[in-house]
Every structure is written in C-alpha cells, then in structure tokens.
Amino acid sequence: GMTVSEMRLVARINPKSDPTGIIAGDDTACCMPFGSGKNTVYTFNLNTGQFTLQLEREGNRPRTIAQSVLTKDRDSGKSVPELVSQILHGHKHITEVLGPEIMQEGTAVAACDNVEVAPNYMESRYLDAIKIIYTDFFRKYMARYGTEQNLETEKVVVGLGYSDALQNLKREPNTYVPLAPVSYSDKLGEMVGKLDLTTDTSAVRCDVREIMVGEARKNPAIEVCGVSYLTYEDTHSVSWLEGKAYQDNPGFIENFHNMENGLIAKDIANEHFDRPNMSLKYSQEGRVFGYLMAWEGKMNSSHSGEPVVYIADLAVEPGNRMAGGRLVHAFGDLYKENYIKNGHLPAIVGEFREDTSYKLVKKHLQKLTQRLGVEFEITELGTEQRNGERMHRLVIRPKAA
After folding, report:
1. Which whole-number Å values give the CA distances from 89 to 85, 86, 124, in the listed order?
2. What's the half-sphere exposure (Cβ side, CA atoms, 13 Å) at 227?
C-alpha cells in the first residue's frame, strides 16, 4: 500500500480565471457543481476563493480530492445562528442586531466554508494527509501574505456542515461572518473548527510557487486625513451606517444585500474597464463614520454615452461634523488626479437629499474650487418628492480653464 510520505499533493488557492476552481464541486461530487446557482455566486463574489487539493497520479491527470470555499470573515462577537435567525427570519435590520462595534476596522479571519472530499478518498490515510496539507498550506500562506492582507495569522476557522474532513479539530463558538456574505453556507452552526497554524509542519517537503495574475490598477494615494478607499470588504460597516444615516427616513434604506452587490459590482467594473476607484470612507481611530459611494459610468446606456462620475450615495453618521467635508474634499482630489490631470472633465451626477447631502455639496463646492483651482457649476435637472423628502437631481460640471 501507499504510505502518506509517498503522496504527491498540489494545494492551491485558484485565481478566479482558473477553471480548476470553478469545476472543483464536480470533482468532489458535492452540492455546488459548475452552473449551479451557488457556484455562480461564488465565482462573482470577490470575497470567495476556491481552495483545491489535488493528488498527482502516475500517468493520469491530477485528481481534485478535497476542496473548500474560502472567505475572509470578521468576528462579529455574536452567535451566527442567532444573527441568521434575526436578520433572515426576523427581518431585522443589521443596526437592530449588531452594535456600533461592527464599525471598528479590525483583523479579518480566513475561513473554509467546509471541507468537501471526493467519495473515493474518504480513507483515513487521505484524511490524515488532508489535515496535514491544509495546516501546512495556510501556515505558509499566512507567513507570506497574512499581514499585508490584514488576516489573523495563527488560525483558520472551518465550517462543520457537510464537512468530510478536519472534523476532529478543536471547536470554538461560531461568531464569524464573511466580509461579503453569500446566501448559502455550511458554516452556520453554533461551533466552528479551529485549524491551528502554530502546529509544526516542517516534516512536509514542498515546492512553493506563486501564480501571477494581472496587475491591479494603482489608485492614487489619498492625502485627506482619515479617508481611505471603500471596497466590498466594507459591506458590514456601510450597511450599518446606511441604516443609521437614514433612520429618520427608512424609505431610503437599500439594505445589506443591495449595498453588498453594489460594492462588488463597482469593484468588478472598475477592474474590467480599468476605471479608478472613486468610492471612499472616513474613519477615526479605526471606526468608520461616513462613506461616499461613486463610480465612473455613462450618462445613458448606449456605448456612445457621455462618461460621467455618478455619486450613488453619501452618508455620514448623524452628528459627525468632520466626515462629510473630508469625504467631499478627498473625492475632489481624486477627481483632479484621475481626470483633470489627464485632460478629462466628466460631469459629476447624483441625487441629493435636501436637508443633508444637498446642503453638504453646496457648502463645499466653493471650497473645492479653491482647493483644485477649477470652477464647478451646478445644474439642477429637477427635484422630486420621494419618501416625503425633496430630492435634487444635480449635474456638477467643471468649467474648462
């Protein structure tokens, strides 16, 4: 018989473009084959990756013997089954279920949704090898990328639903929620397994290779104090903040899944069309107090439509006096770096609430003119009453020098 020491295994996190990851569910005969709804969601959700473990076989193609959907999670401090029942079944808004600590920007935790093993590889020698390789891989991964990806480096948590391997891990209460959650998960139980990355795995001989994928666009540095880029990883804080900012008028609340899909979609579109990230958040001492969601698009749906920068949402926690002005100033700086310096002057368009964002934009436009050395003129396309409030549809155009 074959001993563990003779096994040649290839473990990797697959780039989104690699078919191995997309068809991994077919290889392990689990409930997420290619083309299934959940697999499609995993493919497009930027917070999910596919980890595969393949066995190299003499004269045959490598065989995927184990696979996990990976997510970057945050520790919510609350029991996940309880959260799910309150939000999904009790239809409560995130602000009613989680406190302001969700706004604190902390370290993320890597999570395996579960571990699916191909039916022919459920023998103990393979299951032992799977545990050793998972531990070794993530240990090396954290040493190389953990800090730069803001990940907890000493553990990975593992969902226990339908999990075929790693069942004998130490357990801890499940308080881990993906940064951009998906509708189906095997990590919704009371407990999760803890894969301890401090275990010595030096006995594993391996050859580490990095898969090079296309270089991401370099967005300009932001000089405004407290302001940084907003991405899909901010779904929790944006959704919580949206609930607070619009608590005086809940008709405006988009809700968690719409905010999440908007953030993911603009991140994908920016990458695909090579457009700059124009979305921002404002934090003080690691806590988010406001955000501005914006992206480049077209004035109408035709390909020849005039390029514009669309402000989809500008919200700040009620009572925070700094957030709005800082966000508008940083947005102006990015507009100058990404557009004015390249000789482009796209219009800025958006809808603004009369008593909040409309006042904010009018107040800061004059300051922006001084800051950027460019004059802007506001055209009002019209106003309408929505949810009992006056909304202003604005086009803000820079005047060519």
Report:
1. 5, 6, 39
2. 26
The partner residues of 70 in beta bridges, in order of sequence, read: 49, 112
What are the phi and psi torsion angles at 314 (to 5°)? -135, 110
The answer to whether the beta carbons of residues 244 and 236 sit under 8 Å apart is no
Phi and psi of 385, rounded to 5°? -85, 125
Q: Is the pTM of this model over 0.85?
A: yes
- Quick one: tokens of 71? 């997510």
> At 100, is the secondary structure helix, strand, or coil?
helix
Q: CB–CB of 277/219 below 8 Å? A: yes
| DSSP assignment of 188-239 | -SSEEEEEETTS--TT------PPP-PPPP-PPPP-STTEEE--GGGHHHHH
CA distance 398 to 395: 10
pLDDT tens across 127-173, in order? Answer: 999 999 999 999 999 999 999 999 999 999 999 998 888 888 999 99
261: β partners: none
How does pLDDT run across 298-356, given as a tens digit for each residue? 887 666 778 899 999 999 998 888 999 999 999 999 999 999 999 989 999 999 988 88
